[in-house]
Amino acid sequence: MKLLYFAWLKTKTGLAEENVTPPAGVATVGQLLSWLEGRGPNFADALSDRGAIRVAVNQAYAKPGDPIGPDDEVALFPPVTGG
Amino acid sequence: MIRVQQEDFDVGKELAKLTEGNQAIGGVAVFVGLVRDMAGGSGISAMTLEHYPAMTEKMLSEIEEEAKQRWPLEASLVIHRYGRLEPGDQIVMVAAASAHRQAAFEACEFLMDWLKTKAPFWKLEETDQGAQWVDARDSDDAAAARWVKRGPDAAE
Predict the structure, then answer these.
(1) Which chain B residues are Cβ-neighbours of A82 within 8 angstroms?
(2) Which of A11, A44, A58, A82 shows the greatest Cβ crowding within 10 Å of its Cβ?
(3) Complex prediction ipTM
(4) Which tens digit of pLDDT belongs to each residue from B83-95?
(5) A75 within a domain of the structure (yes/no)
(6) Residue of chain B whose alpha carbon sits nearest to that of A58
(7) How far apart are CA A73 and CA A7, in angstroms?
(8) Do the bridges between strand B42-51 and strand B38-39 make them parallel or antiparallel, or are there none, so unpaired?
(9) What are residue B113's phi and psi, to 5 degrees?
């Protein structure tokens, strides 16, 4: 699974993108965030405010209950501020 | 038409191209967004717009398609820049052309309101206190929510 981080999520995690293989049982967006949160202090800090995190699966906005799979591109970012 | 680009654009030329050859167009509403030199009391020397290229194009196309479904548009255009911009620079241009002004005005507002809350762009401002990511504003969510359809046929 390919993960992308944008804006302050990139700054806090120190990563722009990475490939990960989450353990079996990580089947939804919400479960992925919980798993990521346990990967170390940077991730715990970056993901501490769930309300401030948007997730897109394959370039479409996703909700915590939406499914994810090994071939998906999952992006994590704060609420958008363009325009 | 959607364009996401680093370079500046010429509003006059873009409008001429948009309406060229289509005499069913009776009006064009245009919005051009510029970089301000102040935000929340802090001076801004520049800002950098980051985006998620694959999703940006997809979301902007979806938003434009939604506008075409809702209003009888003859033509529409969204240009959004990314990269480092300075106060006074153009960031975004939205134009909606229709036979009559009401559809053009409404579609132009809709395009901007949805773009601001859905298109994956983020502003990093260079202020007196250092570089700061801009926070999303509740007022932008409220503006976008005006256009959400209610009832059994709601799209969302």
Answers:
(1) 49, 51, 80, 91-92, 115-116, 119-123
(2) A82
(3) 0.94
(4) 999 999 999 999 9
(5) yes
(6) B55
(7) 17
(8) antiparallel
(9) -60, -40
For residue B62, which amino acid is it? E
pTM of the model as a whole: 0.92
B2-5 and B73-81 as β-strands: parallel, antiparallel, unpaired? parallel
pLDDT in tens, B20-74: 999 999 999 999 999 999 887 789 999 999 999 999 999 999 999 999 999 999 9
Domain count within chain A: 1
Angle (nearest 5°) at CA B106 between B15 and B66: 85
Question: Residue B127 pairs with which residues in a beta bridge?
Answer: B44, B130
- pLDDT at residue A81 greater than cutoff 70: yes
**At the top level of CATH, which class does the domain B2-145 belong to?**
alpha beta
A76 domain residue, yes or no? yes
Chain B CA closest to residue A7: B122
- 3-state class of B39 per DSSP? strand
Residue A75 near chain B (CB below 8 Å): yes
C-alpha distances in angstroms, B24 versus A43, A62, B19, B98? 55, 40, 9, 8
